[in-house]
């Protein structure tokens, strides 16, 4: 009967663990960063829209009032 | 009234999430990865010479191939950017280079972990490892050029040139095991692979791993491009805010 070589399981586990941890951290970082940028974008757009509304509200209308 | 508006916004947001192709790609990648794990650990035969450590090969080889795909996309998008000068090409080039760097880093790390029990050393300056390390340096330099160039415009142009020239190293990495015969195993996939390089069951599981990793690669690329799009929109708004 052929004897199998040493299993080297810690090395096997380490390789798979490193791969999945790195992929998970990279994907989670991108998702978190995109949500944070998106929130900032939405805030800026809202504040931009409300300040234009204020400017339009202060501006005289067609009748000059 | 405000509560109804909030509910409607929540419903619209959930609908937008379901329509987002990235979510579906992530779910597909997760499902294929689970099946792949089962195939690698429960179905693939144990190598009689190397033992269980040989199973690293089922992730090491697809990760290496997909890093080449990332750099190929980067080079193609770099050419597209130099011709058209549009944001879309630059976004693709940037995203594919970054995802490519993540993949080639993991290819190096899994290779090093495999080398220790099999070759008895963590690292040796043999041609495949050395040319892969050079590839890693080229595309890390690509990402640094983007960040440290005097202007964003120069960063895009210079990095496009580096991305195109840097791709020359990819075929050198692939053929290195033939040009300079060394201790690294020869190709098991691609134009230079022998027909009987692998047992049929091993070859099928390798192809499945490649497909699973490809979906993950596609998800990461889409997510990185979406992030870059949001970052560009934010800088644009800031510029407009400063100019007012």
Would you kindly provide a brief summary of this structure?
Chain A is an all-alpha fold and 65 residues long.
Describe the protein in words:
- The complex is a heterodimer of chains A (65) and B (244).
- With 65 residues, chain A is an all-alpha fold.
- In chain A, 77% of the residues lie in helices and 0% in strands.
- Chain A contains one helix and no strands.
- The radius of gyration of chain A is 29 Å and the shape is rod-shaped.
- The mean pLDDT of chain A is 80.
- With 244 residues, chain B is mainly α.
- Chain B contains eight helices and no strands.
- In chain B, helix 3 packs antiparallel against helix 4 and helix 3 crosses helix 6.
- The mean pLDDT of chain B is 91.
- The chains are: A mainly alpha (65), B mainly alpha (244).
- The interface between A and B is medium-sized, with 29 and 36 residues.
Protein chains sharing the most extensive interface: A-B, 29 and 36 residues
Determine the mean pLDDT of chain B.
91
- Note poorly predicted spans of chain A: none
Q: Which term fits the overall shape of chain B?
A: globular
Radius of gyration of chain A: 29 Å
Count of DSSP helices of chain B?
Answer: 8
Taken from the alpha-carbon principal axes, the silhouette of chain A is rod-shaped
How many beta-strand runs of chain B? Answer: 0
- SSE topology string of chain A: H
Strand content of chain A: under 5%
Question: Which short descriptors sum up this protein?
Answer:
heterodimer, A: 65 residues, mainly alpha, B: 244 residues, 8 helices, 80% helix
Task: Give the SSE map.
The complex is a heterodimer of chains A (65) and B (244).
Chain A: H1 9-58
Chain B: H1 2-19, H2 21-43, H3 57-84, H4 87-119, H5 127-148, H6 152-166, H7 169-179, H8 200-243
Helix pairs in contact in B: 2-8, 3-4, 3-6, 3-8, 4-5, 4-8, 5-6, 5-7
């Amino acid at each position: 009967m052929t004897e199998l070589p040493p299993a080297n399981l810690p090395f096997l586990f380490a390789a798979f663990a490193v791969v999945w941890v790195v992929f998970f951290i990279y994907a989670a970082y991108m998702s978190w960063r995109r949500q944070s940028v998106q929130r900032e974008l939405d805030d800026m757009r809202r504040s931009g829209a409300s300040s234009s509304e204020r400017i339009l509200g202060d501006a005289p209308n067609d009748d000059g009032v | 009234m405000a509560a109804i508006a909030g509910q409607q916004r929540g419903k619209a947001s959930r609908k937008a999430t379901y329509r987002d192709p990235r979510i579906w790609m992530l779910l597909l990648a997760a499902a294929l990865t689970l099946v792949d794990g089962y195939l690698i650990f429960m179905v693939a035969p144990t190598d009689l010479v190397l033992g269980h450590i040989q199973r690293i090969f089922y992730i090491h080889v697809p990760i290496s191939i997909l890093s080449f795909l990332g750099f190929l996309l980067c080079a193609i998008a770099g050419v597209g950017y130099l011709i058209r000068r549009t944001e879309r090409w630059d976004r693709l080039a940037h995203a594919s280079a970054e995802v490519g760097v993540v993949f080639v880093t993991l290819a190096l790390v899994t290779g090093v972990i495999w080398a220790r029990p099999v070759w008895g050393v963590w690292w040796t300056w043999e041609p495949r490892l050395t040319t892969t390390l050079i590839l890693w340096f080229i595309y890390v330099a690509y990402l640094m050029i983007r960040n440290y160039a005097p202007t964003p415009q120069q960063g895009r142009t210079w990095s496009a040139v580096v991305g195109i020239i840097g791709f020359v190293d990819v075929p050198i990495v692939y053929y290195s095991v033939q040009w300079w015969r060394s201790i690294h195993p020869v190709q098991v996939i691609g134009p230079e692979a022998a027909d009987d390089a692998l047992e049929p069951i091993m070859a099928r599981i390798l192809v499945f791993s490649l497909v699973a990793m490809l979906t993950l690669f596609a998800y990461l690329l889409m997510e990185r491009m979406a992030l870059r799009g949001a970052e560009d929109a934010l800088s644009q708004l800031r510029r407009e805010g400063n100019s007012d």
